[in-house]
Specification:
This protein is an alpha+beta fold and 492 residues long. It is 36% helix and 16% strand.
Length: 492
């Protein structure tokens, strides 16, 4: 018996020794992998920045800027029409409406910038959270306390903006001591769930606060440096005695000077800029990626509650109090304007608004068929809000992200269509498209059961027309003024 136990112990010890050796081998393999990965990053970064430095020293090419693309003037309906019984068509209604289903639109002729749904690949590994005892540069971003390891870095100083002077400053920034700075910025991007525009604003905020002046030459060069190292496509240019960042987006944006370079629109994100001649350092950083305006997740800013407002449906017993996050509203207010309506619908509602709104709506539609539930949701959107055109409320075209619909005093057809599409998708799980008529935006829903009324066919699928601005109308009812108009389908 003792011999059996001893043999078992020996075998167990051997097993433990083998496991320990395997773990040690794994640790060595991982450490070797980490060293090789770090070396690859460092080699890539050193080569890319050396080539960039050399390119900067060459003469920059002259480009003429185009005037800002004006925000489209698309007058909204002066007031939402109210459904009247005589508007209802006799049944059955079996003839579908025709729709214009366009191909994807290029953002800038002749070649479009293709949006990529993932973050760009940075040239250094990401950082972990900064230890509390490490000296840092602190700042606020939409009332979020932030810190990065920038406190003890050598600041650049530009006596002029000649090619040689700018290249020398780039050499200073390319020092490996700036690696933690870049990594901290990328960590903040992920921690705050920032989209590309949010990250651009973050780096601009850091640069301006660190150098003490908005849009100073040092601030601009620092901003371009961090963004190139983060994997973004961006160009540096000069005009008169100023350095300027040129930023390409995957959507057309309005109100900013821009220039076409290699078939792509590059925007000067400074509305005060009036010059039209620029000298551009047109160097393509390896693996660079254009900025996207798409918001895949809303930023995680501290919650600063706005005044609560009550919204109620006229036909159904729905009443709900909603407050929004002022920091998020401020972020939306600074967002570039675009007429890509699906951009706003894809951003959805914030979780805080959903927490207030969705339990009430879910209770109202519980146990209802899809058409019944859709009628409850559409009447809420039709009747719970005041209506104003963008011109009346802002003086220019101003589509809302869905949270803004609960913040501003009034909204219009675009805002209602965007909100309704989100509610139907989230609460009913149904596919929705936006329908763009002249001066009007509506929706159509692909129900899983038969629904009577006006509809259109998309890819051999029936989509029932649902207009959140046709006050009192049920699903399947199109405004009489658009019954002979082919809408353009906007997929979400």
């Amino acid at each position: 018996m003792k011999k059996t136990v001893s043999l078992f112990v020996i075998l167990l010890l051997c097993r433990v020794s083998i496991i320990a050796q395997n773990q040690q081998d794994l640790r060595k393999a991982y450490e070797e992998f980490r060293k090789n990965a770090t070396k690859e990053y460092n080699d890539f970064r050193d080569q890319a920045n050396a080539e960039y430095d050399e390119f900067i020293r060459q003469a920059w090419k002259e480009f003429g800027a185009e005037p800002p693309i004006p925000v489209p003037t698309s007058p909204d309906l002066p007031k939402p029409p109210v459904f009247k019984p005589e508007d209802k068509k006799p049944k059955p209604d079996s003839i579908p409406f025709e729709a214009v289903i366009p191909a994807a639109k290029p953002i800038a002729p002749p070649q479009p910038v293709v949006p990529i749904p993932v973050n760009p690949i940075p040239v250094i590994p990401k950082a972990q959270p900064i230890p509390l005892d490490v000296p840092t540069f602190s700042f606020n971003f939409y009332k979020t306390a932030c810190r990065i390891r920038l406190e003890n870095q050598q600041k650049i100083s530009l006596q002029n903006i000649s090619e040689e002077t700018v290249a020398d400053a780039w050499t200073t920034l390319s020092n490996a001591s700036y690696d933690p700075v870049i990594a901290d910025c990328l960590h903040l991007r992920d921690e705050l769930k920032l989209c590309d525009w949010g990250y651009f604003q973050l780096i601009q905020t850091i640069a301006d606060k660190y150098y003490g002046t908005d849009h100073s030459n040092e601030s601009t060069l620092f901003q371009v440096f961090i963004l190139t190292q983060s994997g973004y496509k961006i160009r540096i240019a000069r005009t008169n005695n100023l350095l300027v960042a040129l930023v390409p987006f995957d959507h057309t944006i309005y109100s900013y000077l821009y220039m076409q370079i290699d078939g792509c629109n590059y925007y000067v994100i400074n509305k005060d800029m009036k010059n039209n001649q620029f000298y551009v350092c047109n160097y393509a950083f390896p693996k660079e990626q254009a900025f996207s305006l798409q918001i895949n997740s809303l930023p995680d800013f501290p919650y600063d509650a706005t005044v609560s407002k009550t919204f109620a449906s006229v036909r159904y017993p729905i009443q709900v109090a909603i407050e929004t996050n002022q920091n998020l509203i401020d972020f939306f207010n600074a967002y570039p304007l675009s007429s890509e309506w699906n951009l706003y619908a894809k951003a959805s509602l914030s979780e805080r608004v959903k927490e207030q709104l969705y339990p009430v709506l879910k209770n109202s539609i519980s146990g209802k068929s899809q058409p019944e539930a859709a009628n409850i949701l559409i009447n809420f959107v039709q009747t719970a809000f005041a209506y104003q055109t963008d011109q009346e409320q802002f003086g220019y075209e101003r589509p809302f992200f869905a949270d803004e619909t609960f913040y501003y005093p009034a909204n219009n057809c675009k805002d209602r269509a965007i909100l309704f599409s989100i509610l139907v998708n989230d609460l009913l799980g149904l596919d929705v498209v936006l329908l763009h008529y002249p001066n009007h935006l509506s929706t159509a829903v692909r129900f899983n059961e038969n629904v009577e009324g006006d509809y259109l066919m998309i890819d051999n699928q029936k989509y029932t027309l649902c207009d959140p601005t046709y006050i009192g109308a049920d699903i399947g009812m199109e405004m009489p003024i658009f019954q002979n108009t082919k809408p353009e389908v906007v997929r979400i």
